[in-house]
Amino acid sequence: MSDDIYREIILDHYRNPRNKGRLPNPDVSIHDSNPLCGDEIDMHIRVEEDKIKDIKFEGRGCAISQASASMLTEMVLNKPLKHVKDLVKEDILENIGLTNLGPARIKCALLSLKVLKMSMVKYYADRDPESASKYQNEPGAF
Fold first, then answer.
1. pTM, rounded to two decimals
2. Relative to the CA of 23, which of 31, 96, 116, 123 has its CA 20 to 30 Å away?
């Protein structure tokens, strides 16, 4: 696809974000920000049977950070937690379709992945601290 199509998809997710909002009674909620540009993401996740059963995000910032969060929530909804653990930055950059981003914009695009990975570490730590450290140290962990 051309960069123009990807830009349209990013703008659509920015203007009409999917899974945006607050999730009542989440199993885990995490907030993080990119202090260099001011992007912020809060992620709220409900897990059932080792799958992401529901996910919502709140945030503010540039189109890339917010569209990336919207796209990421679609990527992981109803997926096993192992799928989340195996996600890497290349998956996100490929999903948003802009591989020629500069370093500052890459941080914008990857903020939601960082928050999601932090959410998983917290989820495991709340249930079993030993499991959380194993999650952090395995390949694919953030």
1. 0.87
2. 96
Assess if CATH 3.40.50.300 describes domain 3-137. Answer: no
Q: Is 78 helix (H, G, I), strand (E, B) or coil?
A: coil
% of the chain residues with pLDDT over 70? 88
Return all residues near 93 (Cβ < 8 A) that are at least 6 apart.
Answer: 99, 101, 106, 109, 110
Strands laid side by side in the 28-34 sheet: 28-34, 39-48, 51-60
Long-range contacts of 94-102 (CB under 8 A, 24+ apart): 95/68, 95/71, 96/6, 96/9, 96/10, 96/64, 96/67, 96/68, 96/71, 97/1, 97/3, 97/5, 97/6, 97/9, 97/10, 98/3, 98/6, 98/7, 98/10, 98/64, 101/64
> Residue 100 half-sphere exposure, CB side, CA atoms within 13 Å?
4
- Give strand pairing partners of 28: 45
Q: What is the pLDDT of residues 113-135, one digit of tens each?
A: 999 999 999 999 998 877 656 65
In percent, how much of the chain has pLDDT > 90?
70
Q: Which amino acid is at 82?
A: K
